[in-house]
Amino acid sequence: FVAGAGTGGTVSGAGKFLKEKNPAIKVIAGDPVGSLYTGYHRNRALGEGSPYKVEGIGGDKVPSTVWWDVIDEFRQVPDRDSMRMARRLAREEGLLVGGSTGLNVVISLQVAAEVNAAGACVVTILCDTGERYLSKIFDDDWMQENQLLEAPRLSVEQLLARRPKGAPELVSVTPAAQVRQALNLMSTWSVSQIPVVDDGQCVGGLTESTLMTRALAQPAMLDRPVREVMDPPFPVVDAAFPTDRLAPMLTRESPATLVQKDGKLIGIVSRYDLLQQLIGTR
Q: pTM score, two decimals?
């Protein structure tokens, strides 16, 4: 018999009744990773807990309503496995349930795979409804923001489309533009890298930190053309290039990558853009 333990009433009461009918029945309690129950059941001492997302089960203190001696074993399940199982039950079985049910089913499948007896029977409880979690477990954005669901593979063009509206697709300067003009553009559009573009091709790159350091040391440089101070051109990738392959290309020396489509430069992706996508804010 498998059931999650919150206040412990279900797994303790049902477990006690079942053992009275058949002492050979094993009672297994499900517990989210981060809860203190599993450790307490093992050594009767409170350890260190951590936050978890599955609701209604587990805890950071020991309730008096759990009959610890009735329960043969506690098993912990990560949030990701519990919630993905809840989504799987909805998709494959038409059962709209929540994360604690997902946890119960994960453990039940583990136990079923371990039991080596033709007449074995594993029973669990679908203990909650997924209607309460439509904006959480069944919301891809929420799942991805909480690192519980892999984000779909994103192209650099799709990443560019997520930028705030209102800014130009690509802020650039020509080789003849003054350093002063480049710094003004960086300030106006809140960008840290600007490509130097000549006849549609990137011929050099400008980085705000480097340019400001040099201008502060030599103020006269502000009136010089950028062709005299520009760094090597930024690398260029195709619009369909996947963002998960972009990180190794973005270095301290080359902190941005240009994006082209059909031979035309359509934008620039910086380390900051990629980081925002990785942490789920873009």
A: 0.61
